[in-house]
Request: fold
Amino acid sequence: MDYIDFTQLHPVRKAIVGVRRGIIGFPKTVGQFFGAIRRGIAGFFRGIGRLIAETVAAFVHGDFRTRLSFLILGLGNAFRGQIVRGLLFFLCEIGYIAYMVLFGSSFLAKIGTLGTETQQKVFDETEGIYIYTRGDNSMQILLFSVLSILLTLLFIGVYLWNIRSAYRSQQLQEQEKPLPTFRQDLHSLLDSRYHVTLLTPPVVLVTLFTILPLIFMVLIAFTNFDKDHQPPGNLFTWIGLDNFSAMFGGNEQLGYTFLNLLLWTFVWALFSTFSNYIFGMILALLINKKGIRFKKFWRTVFIITIAVPQFVSLMLMSQLLADEGAVNVLLRELGWISESVPFLTNGTMAKITVLVINMWVGIPYSMLITTGILLNIPEDMYESARIDGAGPVTAFFKITLPYMLFVTTPYLITQFVNNINNFNVIYLLTRGGPLTLDYYKAGQTDLLVTWLYKQTVEEQNYNLAGVIGVIVFIITATFSLIVYNSSASAKKEEEFQ
Amino acid sequence: MKVLRRIGILFLAVVLVFCLAACNRNRGDGDVTKDTVELKVWGAQEDQEMLKAMVEEFKKENPDTNYSITFGVVGEKDTQTKILEDPDAAADVFSFPDDQMGDLIKAGVLYEITLDKAAIMSENSEGSVAAATVDNKLYAYPMTADNGYFLYYDKSVLTEEDVKTLDGMLAAAQKKNKKVLMDVSNGWYLASFFLGAGGSLGLENGKQTCDFNNEQGVAAGEAVKAFCAHPAFITGEDAILTGGIGSTIAAGVSGTWTADAIQEKLGDNYAATKLPTFTLNGKQVQMKSFAGYKLMGVNSGTKHPKEAMKLARFLTNEKNQLIRFEKRAMGPSNIKAAADEKVKANVALSALAMQNQYGVSQANVLNSSWDPMEAFGTAMEAKDYKKTVKEYLDTMVSQMAA
Reply:
């Protein structure tokens, strides 16, 4: 169907066609997504293949100096007069070997079992006390093994770089070109390769403080690191996919809890994102409307709620709405109710309450953001719409909303993902409560992320928390990639300049 | 461009220096001489000043050793979590409530106490020693004996006769349009019904066992249900009790930590006593309670076990338990300290002593058992009767064992 045919359809038919297109197009969107992943992986392996080919070529065509640097790093460079560069490569090798011998290997050797020796105590007659000998500590073994593996990968990189550098120098010499001196190398870091200088520290820090813990957490999902296996008294070990199978079928209550919390997490994310967005936009439209006086005053009034720190408003709300809190006491004194309204103690009520309170803290922000964009919509579009006979509702759905969605889709996705992991609002308002015996140690307003928090901090069931974390990560990552890639903002990026 | 790049490099250098400096700080000072005994002590924020004074005394009493004692702020409630995060980085000496014993022993972080064992066991009250021992092995030093609860009431509303039974108390309060507060949706308080009905909690291979869902337990559950449905019942945390007592609330269940606030509110009408009896299958049964103790433990990974034990022993001796009572109103577990005139004159502590005749040790309760109990209490308070009491209790017990 051409675009021109489509625009002439009856609105109902239009909607049907639109929905059908969406459904038909969905497998394609998903397909594109997985295609992109496949291409990424393929590209990665092609890159590795190229690296290996280059290394082999260096060995085949290299002279003895280049070949020697396969064993002793930096030798090829040092023999050709690039002393400092060669020395640095050599130091890397020494450092890596020293690390592995003195430290890393003792942990790496135990990664298969995560330790077997528990803590022992022997009674010392002369001192009159037990002497404890620390055994293995599964947690440290896992942590330092991951670190060692990352360092090994880094070293492999340095190793390949060293071979390449030696071979490059050999080729330059064969072509009778001058070799770059160390001073020139350093200078290039400030000049042609300035990006390397700037990017190195952030990459190192992100690896240490984000990627390392992330790998650690994912690995814990495959162990039995729970409250019964706390080192040093008890060690934990690999149990494969048992945690995942317990969550999806093996343990009925766990599975039930997980599915219900997942459902509530999505309901929460959806409602809180769109309620804030739509009400914020309506508020902004109201204030922007011609004929409204004291615009600046109204805007300021709503923005004042931002000035109060979010957690203060939330704690205050939870106090106010408690069964014996100010609101209930006031209503009772006035004689409007005889029993306290269970704002936070009845499951359904609590869910509604947190959604409404979230609007209180969220709407001013979306009002601010949408105000700016609304002011940007060209007035002449509305004028021509009015001339064509469009009412305010039609103008909203045909002009305002498409324009807003186009600009703010990335913002909406971020908000949605943020809300899936919206720890603050839930934890400060209800702590996930009211608790229910239907769930496995979770309350009715618990999101997956607050359940995860309880499992780690209160219950020490790190393995379960790991599983929850992995699943939440997969869900949010897949969701945001698919939605973003199929959104107008990504597809028509060039048009909007 | 050149200038910009220079600035970029400078910025990076500053960031790196900060990072390195931050990493280095953990290494500790290197100039401490070899003979220095370095110890770390954990205590609650409110206790820091008192702890520091006690440690100064300790140093004065042991002038031959060069101590370097540092302090960390970790409230007793969080001790378990913080220690298990990394036992090697945790304090050498730390205090904790006795319900964390099971988990801490399982994780192997408590040093078994053998020095002065007999003396420690005879100096402290029976209950506190029982809380610190497992299989006749002593794992910690008893520190306080006040982690329990009892009944506060307003003498102008309720008579001594009224507060003997729960029914009598509720009826008397209702007549005067007042309320009786108990935080039923808190496993710690809730358990008093089940324990009163003869229920028990135990440990088997590190798992919680519990018989609150047997016939007697279900009867106790029904009593909780009736209590929560009574018009004079209200629930709430300590803030509700201290805020409402004297005006809308006539009596409430809490512990010594609210004593000052309640005394201030009630003035001459301030009174406290043991928990009342409740109706179980038509008979009056005394409500029991958890008698909790705070203990002081030594980290099994400490580098100076003997010195750490000496410090823990000092911090929990008679004199320091009395200081704890005077400064922070914590009831002593030391028998001599508990017999002190000043301690005996304390209304709340003597009510607690009365209730402690019906005290049950908390050492057999795992930390993860509170949430299922709370969930049952929440359902009763919300009058959520979609399942029978028996069904609720069955789920509760199976979750506690999980």
